[in-house]
Structures are given as structure tokens and as C-alpha cells.
Specification:
Length: 493
Amino acid sequence: MKIFYFIAVLTVNSAISLSGQAGMYSESDIELQDLFIESHLEKQKANYNKQIQLLKELVRRDRSAHIAYYEMARAYFQMENSALAESMLSKALKIDASNECYLSLMVEVQESQKKYTAAVGTATTLVKNFPDKQEYHFMLAKNHLSNGQSDEAIKTLLNFQNLTGLTEEISKRIFRIYDSKGKISEAIYTLKALSEKYPGNTRFLSNLAGYLLEKGKKSEALRYYERLLQLDPDHPEANLVIAREEGPLNTSQGELSAIEAIIANENISLDDIIKELMPYMSNMDREGEQTEKLKNISLQLLEKYPSEAKTHAVRADILFYSGSIADSEQLYQKAIELDNSKYTLWDQWLINLWELENYNKMMLKSEEAIDFFPNQFYAWFYYALALQMIDNTEDAQEYLFEAKLIAGNKQNFKNACTILESWLDLKTIGSAERLSELSSLNLSQVYSPVLFDLLGEIYYSAGDAGKSKMFWNRAVEFGADEERINRKLGSLN
């Protein structure tokens, strides 16, 4: 029974080189078999130290048992001891220099130690020994790249392409290298070659057209988009690009009109339409013709896709940043009811509730956000803030401490904590004692109207009307309720 199991183990793990003819084992052979079986059992239990101990005893008795060195290498690698793993593999390869498993693992071990020159050498051996295996050519190219040899990586891939013919996997890797190195002409040539090899593949054609458009080669891109529409008249991306070109051009209003016109096109997805809207939303003013167009588009999207969380979220954002804060709050709530898995929606809803001065609801919803996203810093931040606004100072301090733990070394979170701590001092002891800390903060990465609002209150308390006004105005720039902030600014006069 024991010998039968030994044969099964060797079937999985390769063979130990032992003396004796099949079916004729000496007592010494049986002992070696037992050692290997025991080591395999320890491996199954992830007891790597014991496994190694048994394998060492095996190779002490039989120095030619290269599979034992290999198994020790695997065990050391599992234990994240790459140096010893490499040492064991070197011993195995001295005995069986062309073993595919040994060479493949050696590349992994060398990569883990960032020994890319050595990994290139080992991968080169694999490519020479197994020229038909794609993974080894890709392995060699990857290590050339890691070693700063992009030209050699491309040469490796082209050699394999000459061997097997042009394929998507090879072309994709060549394209990425050219693109990352800024070799745009070569990247385009690679995409064109793939598209020409497979002229009926709309995805390849779309990739080519999109890349040309991205690189500013608009007229050439449009030719490929037109070809794409000949193959697939309903292709969403091609329809969208062509629709924009056929709409009124040269003004942002004209481009928005083009977007408005394609909402009814069933061939263009909601995601594509929203993607087109994002640049306009990020630069919208509180009022004006463009803002009104955005409102109209968001309403059309909401009517067409009433069960999509993203349409409620888009309209909520547009209304919020155009000053219709009360109207946007219900839309954020509906968006989260439809899809509560996106923290950015919760974050914007909590800011909205702050602007509406609905602190009880803000406290409840930030606590709910913590349940869904326990590692999101601002969920804890807004919870502490809301607790203070309902006069629960002790808990506010406790949850600020939790927020600081999550903030870690992220400077933007640490800045937010410093601002909130100073504001809590203002609320609890009547003074802002951390003004020196605040003055040293880098606020270039602050985009929250809430943080600017808090800074305005802190400097107002400190008697610095100039800074208070500056920060409250910044809060309005980033979406704070203008009427609410104006009441505060009025107190400066």
C-alpha cells in the first residue's frame, strides 16, 4: 500500500532518482520512499519546516535526488525565503539542467529578488529549450522590460511572432511597450497590422480608431470609425464619435447639443453618454446656458433610465453644484437606494446633508456608511463632525481618534484631522489652539467645501476676518450653499 502511494506521489511531483529496477526495492530505497512520502504529507499541511527537515535527510542519503532539492526550493519560496529557494534550485539544476519545472520556478524566484539579469538568462534557456511555449517568450520579454531593455523585449516578441504568426496577445504586448515609450508611430503600426490581419474584427478596429483619436490624429481616426460603422452600424463608440462630429462644433454649447441629440440613440450606452458629460460637469458654473443644458440632459437621462443609480447621481451632482442643494439631496438618497456600493455617492450625500444643516440625518447616514465602508476615512470624519453638531462631544472625540487611525500617513487625511481637531477645540474650549499647525498645512489638495467651511469658522473665532472670508469663499467655490455661507460672511461686517 505504501509503495502504491509512493508511485501516486511521483506521478504528481516527478520522480526521485533511486536505484533498483521496477518492483525491486532495497530496504534503503524503501526508507527514501518513506521520507519523500512523509515530506509530501507535511507539505499538504503547510508544515514547511518539517517538510524541509525530511527532504534534507533524503538528500543527505541520496545527493542525486534533484526532485528533493526542487521541493525544498518550493517550500522556501512559500516561506518567502527566496535566497534559499534559489540555492536549492541551483543544486537541482546542476543535476537536471534542462528540467522545465526547475527553470520556470527559478525565473519566479529570481524575479522576486529583482535579479532581472539572471531571470533573463534563465528565461532565455526556457525559450531555447521550449520554443513553442508562448508563456516563456512572454516571461523573457517581461524580464527584459524589468531590466530596462525595452528594445530586447520587443525583439523577443517579434521573434516569437515570426515563429507563430501575428496574434492579439503578442500584438497587445508589443503595442503596450511602444506606447509606454512614446513611440506612437510604431504603436499605431502594431494596431494597424492586427486590424489588417483580422479585417472583420470590430474590436481591433475600434482600438485602432480610439488610439488615433487619443493621439490627435482625428481625420484618420474618423476614417476608421466610418469603416467600423460599415461592419457594425450599431457600434456605440463609433456612433458617438460620428454624432459629435455631425453636431454643432467649435463651442462647448454645440458639443453639449450633440450629446443631447444622441440620448435617444439606443445604440449608445448610458455609460458612454455619462463619460461625455463628465468634462462639462467638472467645469460647470452655478448658472448660465451650459448649466441649464446640463440640467436638461440629466433630466432626460433620468426619465430614460429611472432605475439606474448613476442617472440619479449625475442629476444630483449637477443640481448640487448649481446651487439646488435641497433638490439634490433626495436624488443622492435614491441613487444609494438603487446602488449602495459606491462610497463616492455616500461622501457626496454627507456633504449635502452638512450644507442643509441636517445634522441628525448626517449622523445616522455617516454611521450607516461606516457599516458599509469601515476603511473609508471620511465616513468616520463626517460621523465625528455630525456628533459634535448634535452636542455629543465625547463620542465626536472618540470617532475622530478612529478617523486618525485610518488616516495613517496619508497627508491629505492628516490635514483633515488637524482641521477637525482645531474646530473641535473651538467648540469645546472656546479657542483655536492649533493655528500654528493650520498655517503650515498644504491646502493645494483640499477640494471639500466642508473643510473650507471649518477653516472659515476657526479663523473667524481667532479674529482673522481676512482668512475667514477667504476660506468661506473657497467653500462656495467648491459647492457650499451660497446663501448659508453668505449669512456667515455677513457677520464679518
